[in-house]
Amino acid sequence: MDHFKELKVFPLLKDIKDEELKELDLLLKENKFNKGDNIITEGDEGNVMYVLIKGSVDIIKTTIYGDKFVCATLDDSMHPIFGEMALLDNDKRSATVTAKTECNTLSIDTKSFNEYIDKYPRAGVSLLKLMNLNLIRNIRVENENLKLVYQALIEEIESN
Amino acid sequence: MDHFKELKVFPLLKDIKDEELKELDLLLKENKFNKGDNIITEGDEGNVMYVLIKGSVDIIKTTIYGDKFVCATLDDSMHPIFGEMALLDNDKRSATVTAKTECNTLSIDTKSFNEYIDKYPRAGVSLLKLMNLNLIRNIRVENENLKLVYQALIEEIESN
């Protein structure tokens, strides 16, 4: 199936030449998930990155006590990507991603990704920039979360 | 001054062709800082990324109460880069970076960086991968910090 149109809407992919985007499209796998499915599971090994093209997902983390909390909800209008960390560093999944509705994703694994950006470095620059900006947005959110939890801790200590 | 040798030690830059690394070198500015100087100040505007080639730095964040805490110390043996977030998204500096000793850095701004990776996309892929892996390492550390502060909060609440 041709996902060319879905890919063209990603702001940073619009600079990739059409023929190079078509080559990328050939490497992408289409996946369908039912509501409630875990697309990614925290702590698992994994080397696949996903692009959400339809539906919405919850990003869920587990506290040290085993409690789960939703730290973000993403939907297709945001053109989100997830799983890019393990794709790049091959470390464990840092969060669970659960389908909140039926979801359609496109996915690529480390090997295909590296072969593609090696063959088409100009497209690789666009992809890596998109991934960098995604990570930066996550870090800035996490910084704010850390400040809020720290503030709650100090208030709790001072109230006693 | 020629920094070719300093750049060659970065694991992910070793794949950049020598002539392209020399072109990058021409764009890098050398900076010297005294012990105690702020190389980057949290909250400032900024579009410059730094490579630490000599010395060590503290990464310092400010809590909501204005307290400062050192969240990491980096030295030249780690070949660290910092400031890459604002280089890419032009948002405010997320932390202060203070010279813990005399420091020598190399730096590049957004405009030069984008022109370089546009001209040399293969080198751009190496640079962006290095930046991505750096961000991922920071996110994984921040995730652990968030879990620790959250744990302390729960323990504090339960002890009362």
In short:
Two copies of one chain form a homodimer. Chain A has 160 residues and is of the alpha+beta class.
In what order do the strands lie side by side in the largest sheet of chain A? 1-8-3-6
Low-confidence stretches of chain A: none
* Class by SSE composition of chain A: alpha+beta
Mean pLDDT over the full residue set of chain A: 91
- Number of contiguous helices of chain A: 5
CATH class of chain A: Mainly Beta
Distance between the termini of chain A: 61 Å
CATH homologous superfamily annotation of chain A: Jelly Rolls
Number of domains of chain A: 1
Estimated share of beta-strand residues of chain A: 25-35%
Shape of chain A: elongated
CATH topology of chain A: Jelly Rolls
Structural Rg of chain A: 17 Å
What would your notes on this structure say?
The first copy, chain A, is of the alpha+beta class. Chain A has one domain: Jelly Rolls. Chain A contains five helices and eight strands, in the order ααββββββαββαα. In chain A, the strands form two sheets. Chain A has a four-stranded antiparallel β-sheet with strand order 1-8-3-6. The longest helix of chain A has 38 residues, at 121-158. The first copy, chain A, is elongated and about 65 Å long. The mean pLDDT of chain A is 91. The interface between A and B is large, with 42 and 42 residues.
